[in-house]
Amino acid sequence: MAGFSDDINALNVTSLTVCDSEEDGVWLQVKYEVIESIPATLPYDYLRPENINSLIKLIRDELVDRFARGGVTLRCSEPCPLCGSPCRAAAGHTTDPSEDKQRHDCDHQPSGLFGTYDYNTRQLVSDSCSTNILGNYTFPFTSIRDQRPYSQFGICFPTWKQPPPLTTNANEVGQYIFYHYQNELAQYHKCEPCTNVPSSFNRSLDELEQKQKNVIAGITSE
Question: Is the pLDDT of residue 46 over 70?
């Protein structure tokens, strides 16, 4: 993912207009151009796991090229160093004259998605960087013994904004994945499943889809 972020930042964007205000037709054009960039004839077994990354790279390269030609502005996507949630700022924001806007920012997700686990139980943790601040938790910085409080996140990672202290995770999609795919996450990260996933994480796809439609339509929840 970092390579994709590097490609985006290398474009030296001068306009940081985010994609939210783009017309529907722009998105359809991007869709068609991405599809056209995929080889018309693919072997029947092309979508095997070992080939997925190359296909993703092909699509990303097309998006970067489309962006360079003045198309839809992409997001930065630099992952949070502690929870892995992608930066939501516009691509190229690190070159903004404002020092504050240069810093990465994201909706922090359950850290267990990124492989963070409790050292005593080896269970994946459901807390995010934001909820960890309220819990006065720490994270290993330069080593396991070098524990720093989450309240010093912005000091330890100066290219990132300090997460706001929240009582719940802001990333609802991350909540859904963490709730419904515990066994898969534990197997992937070679840890134990979290046994105390908050029930509030049990969101439905219909709920998430409707919220995304509301965002696209400019409808804000009260």
Answer: no
